[in-house]
Design brief:
257 residues; alpha/beta; 2-enoyl-CoA Hydratase, Chain A, domain 1; Lyase 2-enoyl-coa Hydratase, Chain  A, domain 2; six-stranded mixed beta sheet; four-stranded mixed beta sheet; globular; Enoyl-CoA hydratase-related protein; Enoyl-CoA_hyd/isom_CS; lyase
């Protein structure tokens, strides 16, 4: 499939999706978002791909929404368009998504990053939700996911001032996994993806679902969901392969069955 604003590469069971509007720091226009979701849903159905890396370039993962698309809009047309409904489809991708980010990760770019499951950032990364400086607020999950990630008081500070934080600050607040030199951020994301791609695919999916379940349910319900997933995996061929390989002191070869 041909895209205008993203690039796609498949390597060693890893789908690499690159945002590609470098002339505007990968600003997220509607077409880019639709292309991205279309490709993520295609990857979701491709059994040869086990992990996804989402990245941009060294200057910007994504510097925010494309303001030129919204500047002249009014409330009712925006409501009827419901441009954020497509974002909900990203959260339904069951394969793990690793964000490899650098440079500007602002506004919609920050919201897109927070839709990912793990985040590797370069030391030049600057993260923020500056929508308030434009007279608006986040609309693709910024107030919700940021608060769950960094806590109320830090989220309030970032959202109400619009100020950016550094990668080191984001690491301290638990927003990202790791900070590395700029020349290493994609390599580190690839290393993590390669490690996950060797794991049993069904178990990977059920672990992701169970972790996400912790955010929208009670502890008791979450534990019940986890246990059901645990028992379900005992019907898989990969469970047999994994345990037999352990007992035989060899590396397992997981097939996703």
């Amino acid at each position: 499939m041909s895209y205008h604003y993203i690039k796609v590469l498949v390597q060693d069971r890893i789908g690499i999706v690159t945002l590609h509007r470098p002339e505007v720091l990968n600003a997220l226009n509607l077409q880019l978002v639709y292309e991205l979701v279309t490709e993520l849903e295609r990857i979701e159905t491709d059994d040869s791909i086990r992990v996804i890396i989402l990245t941009g370039n060294e200057k910007a993962f994504a510097a925010g929404a494309d303001i030129s698309e919204m500047a002249g809009e009014e409330a009712i047309p925006m409501l009827l368009k419901d441009q954020f409904v497509v974002w909900d489809r990203i959260a339904k991708i069951s394969k793990p998504i690793i964000a490899a980010v650098s440079g500007f990760v602002l506004g919609g770019g920050c919201e897109l990053m927070m839709n990912c499951d793990m985040i590797i950032a370069s030391e030049t990364t600057r993260i923020g939700q500056p929508e308030i400086q434009l007279g608006v607020m986040p609309g693709a999950g910024g107030t919700q996911r940021l608060t769950k990630a960094v806590g109320k008081v830090k989220a309030m500070e970032m959202l109400l001032t619009g100020e950016h934080i550094t990668a080191e600050e984001a690491l301290k607040f638990g927003l990202i996994n790791k900070v590395v030199p700029v020349e290493m951020y994609f390599k580190e994301a690839l290393r993590m993806a390669q490690q996950i791609a060797l794991q049993p695919p069904v178990a990977v999916r059920l672990i992701k679902k169970s972790v996400l379940k912790a955010f929208d349910t009670s502890l008791a319900e979450g534990l019940d969901y986890e246990r059901n997933c645990f028992y379900l995996l005992f019907s898989s061929e990969d469970k047999e392969e994994g345990m037999n390989a352990f007992l035989q002191k060899r590396k397992p070869k997981f097939t996703g069955r």
